Structures are given as C-alpha cells and as structure tokens.
Amino acid sequence: ERSQREQCVRELLCRVTGAEAATVVNNNAAAVLLVLATLASRREVLVSRGELIEIGGSFRMPEIMKAAGCRLVEVGTTNRTHLKDYDGAIGPRTALLMKVHPSNYEIRGFTSAVSERELAALARARSLPMVSDLGSGMLVDLRRWGLPYEPTPADVIADGVDVVTFSGDKLLGGPQAGIIVGRADLLARLKRNPLKRALRLDKLTLAALEAVLRMYADPERVAERVPTLRHLTRPLADIAAQAERLLPAFRRALAGRASVASIACESQAGSGSLPASRLPSRALAIRPLGRRPERAVEDFARAFRALAVPVIGRVQAGALVFDLRCLDDEDRLLTQLDRLAIGQAESG
Ligand SMILES: *Cc1c(COP(=O)(O)O)cnc(C)c1O
C-alpha cells in the first residue's frame, strides 16, 4: 500500500503539541498562505492593527492576505486592541479571527492585546475558526533555562486555538519548513487544496525535520542535542571559562599586534525570535595596537574570515569582538590561529 510521506512527522508533531492533526509545507510563509487561501478565500480575516507585521525577506501580513485572496479587516489600534474590537468587527463575510506573533518588535507603554484564550473563546461563540501565526514557535518552554517565555504551539492549542502555524528553522533549530497543527477537520481541508501540493516539503527536508522532532520528543536531552537550543541555553559560567581558556593562545598569536581581553557582552537571537531580549555572554575583544587602529581592525576581521574555517566576529567600538556563545569546536579554532594572515588582501 502506498504510504503517506508526511506520516512520521505528523505523528511526532501531534505528540509534542497535543494537536489532533498536523501537516508541513515549505516554510511558515507558505503555511500562512495555505491556511488563509483555504479557510478564508474571498472572505474577511480580522487582525489587530498591532500585529500587521513585516519580517525580513518581504513577508508582510497585508500582502500575504491579498495573495491568498482574503480581505484584511484591521481591528483596534496600533497599541491597544480589545476583545470588543474583534466582536464588533465580526460580520457575515468574516471567515476567521487571527493572531500574529510580533516576532521582531515589541510595543511598549500604554498597550493592550487580547490573549489567545480570550480570542479563541470569542471565535467559538461566533462559530468561527481562530488561527494563530506563532512565527518561531518554540516547542519547549524556554523558562526552564531562565529564558523569556515564548508561547508554544502546545500552549495555544490548549488555549483553544484551532490552527497554529510556525517555522521549522527559527528557534526550533530544524530545516526550513512551515508547520501547521490543529483541528483535524480544518487540516483535512488544507490537504485537499491543490496549493498544498505546490508548497510541499521535499523528502530530504522531511527526513531532517523528523530527526529534529525526535530530539524534541525527549525533552530532558533536547537542550544538549539541538544546536540552536544548546547555544541559547548555554550557561554564562561555561562561556566565561571558555574565554579564559582561549585567551593565552589568542594573546600569543597576536603578540605585538593587538591586545586581547575577555569582556562581558550580550548575545541577541536573530530570525525574528525573542525580539527584545539579550542574553548575557562573554567575548574575546581584539584591539589592534599602533597607528590607525580603525583600519587595522578591519584587516583583523578580514584575516579571521579568510581562515580555512572562517571565523566571523563583529566590530564594536574599535575592537573585533567574538561572542563565544556559539563556539562548539574550540580546538579547530585554536589550530587555525597560527595561519592568520593579517594585513593581506582577502583571497575570496
Ligand atoms: C518568520 C515568520 C513568518 C515567516 O516564516 P518563514 O518560515 O521564514 O517563511 C511568518 N510569520 C511570523 C509571525 C514570523 O515570525
């Protein structure tokens, strides 16, 4: 009997999110497009004005709505949206209520937003589906490692949301993919849409996603095994100890040309995840000696990038700074240090 390619991944997703059904597509933009085009074509979708996001790579919520053939109905104001705003905007052409995670910005001050739980209750009372685009969608609660709370798909499913979309390659740390979990009857409609076939994942990506989801099925060890999570949860003391270990070798390699110090720094998670939080970390800061240090620091940065395994830092206040949070292979870095060709043109 011909089997379903997605079967394995679906079961794992249902297990970790508690959803009835799951499916996967090429990326989260495709997931949102498929959901809107299937459940809301030629009808209205209600979204708060505070959630009309643009993220990198030209994903803009109003444009996705248009591409999916829906009419966006803006609700509330930029800083404050209330349940009664959604309630008052529901009409005969309303297809669904939607919440979008403001992935890469934060609205602060006099603000108010409606929670997933409240909105899901309103949707249910009015017999409409409620969709939540979580963006990065972390599968485990990051507070376990002292990190800020990010709503998990399991949390919003438990809050009564009908369909949840999120990325496979942001905080999750897997391959590029868009994941959709939720009510079985609604997901069955997605699977029947010809767009689903056009947006599907290729089988190698599916295999990679399955491997990563299996790691999440073992929550005790997931933080060691998934590199993204390992780096995010790495204890500061561990990073500081690494800085001390590396310092003598860096000083030796750069003797007479630069000073090297271990400094406190902050790591920032990219990809529209953990928008406003910075994690305390430790870095090596390299300051060129001699005249024209601003020029020299660019030479240093270029020399590190030109190594067999390129080492990429950032230039900050006249120093070349290497945040050590994501350095796994210390030995490989050290064995390259005597091959630094500072002051020579980059060979490409
Ligand atoms: C990142 C993001 C997307 C797009 O996800 P991709 O997997 O990059 O296509 C959509 N919505 C939100 C809220 C996001 O943060």
The residue fraction in helices comes out at 25-40%
Distance between the termini: 52 Å
How many strands, which pairing sense, and closed or not: the largest β-sheet?
Answer: 7 strands, mixed
* DSSP E strands, number: 13
List SSEs in N-to-C order: HEHEEEHEHEHEHEEHHHHHHEEHEEH
Shape: elongated
Contiguous uncertain segments of 5+ residues? none
Mean pLDDT: 92
Rg for CA atoms: 24 Å
Question: Helical segment tally?
Answer: 14
The amount of beta strand, in percent, is 15-25%
Bound ligands, named by name, code or SMILES = pyridoxal-5'-phosphate
Strands of the widest sheet, in order across it, are 1-9-8-7-6-2-5
- Helix-strand category: alpha/beta
How would you describe what is shown here?
This protein is an alpha/beta fold and 348 residues long. The chain contains 14 helices and 13 strands. Bound molecules: pyridoxal-5'-phosphate. Residues 27-29, 32, 53, 55, 59, 100-101, 103, 133, 135-136, 167, 178, 272 line the site of pyridoxal-5'-phosphate.
What is the secondary structure topology, with strand pairs?
Layout: H1 7-17, E1 21-25, H2 28-39, E2 44-48, E3 54-55, E4 59-60, H3 61-67, E5 71-75, H4 83-89, E6 94-100, H5 116-125, E7 130-135, H6 153-158, E8 163-167, E9 178-182, H7 184-192, H8 194-198, H9 203-216, H10 222-225, H11 227-232, H12 236-253, E10 258-268, E11 278-288, H13 293-305, E12 314-316, E13 319-323, H14 330-336
Parallel strand pairs: 2-5, 2-6, 6-7, 7-8
Antiparallel strand pairs: 1-9, 3-4, 8-9, 10-11, 11-13, 12-13
The chain binds pyridoxal-5'-phosphate (PLP).
